[in-house]
Amino acid sequence: MAQKMAITLNVNGTGHDILVEPRKTLSDALRGDCGLTGTNVGCEHGVCGACTVLLDGVPVRSCLMFAVQAQGGELRTVEGLAAAPANGGKLHALQQAFIDNHALQCGFCTSGFLMLAAGTLEQQPDIDDASLREVLSSNLCRCTGYQNILRAVRQVRDAGNGGAR
Predict the structure, then answer these.
(1) What whole-number distance in Å separates Cα of residue 101 and Cα of residue 138?
(2) What's the number of domains the chain is made of?
(3) What is the reported pLDDT for 165?
(4) CA–CA distance from 12 to each of 1, 55, 82, 99, 146 (Å)?
(5) This prediction's pTM
(6) Does residue 103 share a domain with residue 76?
């Protein structure tokens, strides 16, 4: 067994001091060591996108990264999308749009889509439809048929509040 390393993951503005083996994936550390189970693990090969989180504002597949690689970066998970209860506990615009547009069914892929969309809209608030469709096609959903997901993300993009927190 490899010796564990002490690292600090800054997730949603909170530091998590954890001990991990160097080979532990970021998704496993988020779920098991930080208690943030909103990041789902699907294929464990970076194909499905269910594990997508933001690292320094960029969407990454957390199943393809080691936790030690994320040390020193700013991580944001689906738990970090909604505003703090002190601010009224409002949902992020994307979360509300997913509800309004019935963009989820079983919900397994939802956190990955939300984080992918949040990172994309924060980086490219005026992304065109073709590019948006291409970005969203990188995540897999077995239930919705994608149209409602696309509709929800477009709604947020068109309202100009893609970076709303």
Answers:
(1) 20
(2) 2
(3) 45
(4) 31, 10, 10, 22, 28
(5) 0.92
(6) no
